[in-house]
Structures are given as C-alpha cells and as structure tokens.
Amino acid sequence: xxxxxxxxxxxxxxxxxxxxxxxxxxxxxxxxxxxxxxxxxxxxxxxxxxxxxxxxxxxxxxxxxxxxxxxxxxxxxxxxxxxxxxxxxxxxxxxxxxxxxxxxxxxxxxxxxxxxxxxxxxxxxxxx
Length: 128
What we know:
- By secondary structure, the protein is mainly alpha-helical.
- It has 2 domains: 1-32; 34-128, no CATH class.
- It is built from 5 helices and no strands.
- It has helices at residues 2-30, 39-53, 57-65, 67-78, 117-120.
- α2 (39-53) packs across α4 (67-78) and α3 crosses α4 (67-78).
- The termini are far apart.
C-alpha cells in the first residue's frame, strides 16, 4: 500500500514537473523577439501558416475568421511583427463570390471617365 502511494506520488510530481517545463518553454517562445516585417520574413511566415493550415482545422478556421484573426495567427506562427497597416485575408475556394477585391483607379478630381469593373478587379500587386 505504501509502495503504491509512493509510486503514485512520484508519478504526480514527475507529471507536474513535465507540465511546468512545457509551460515555461511555451512562455519563453512567446517572449522571443519577433522578426521584422520584410519580404523574406513575411514569405517565410506565410509559408509556415499555409503549411499548418493544410492539416490543422482549428488553425485554418482562425485564418478565415477575420483579417484581425488571420494577422494574429500569422504573427504567432511566424514569430513576426506584422505592422498595423497590413491587412491579411484568407478564404477557401478559388472562386468565392463573397470576396470582391478591387484596386482603386488613379484619382483625378477633374476627370469623369468610366472605370470598368474588370480593369480593377483582383487587386493589388504581383506575388513577391
């Protein structure tokens, strides 16, 4: 009886120490300095996010929940400081008619030329 109690106590102490060490390591990882937002670091972070999204449904749902949620997930997964002005949007399905993204035409206060939908649809810049 005493031996069983000692073994149980030992297992409990060992499990507690293991959990504490894991929590400490996670906490240290969250306090590492984040990488600077630049082309190379952003591409690496996006690669990490896209890779994880292919097998982690909960993470994938975070990416599609909102631009703020996607930005937070990218910052955490890529350990990168995402500037406030950056907007990140993920969606599933190549032809999702719920997303309408446009590049605005050049501003011309004296011009009233017609601007066509097709010309400005699918914004904004070439792939890095």
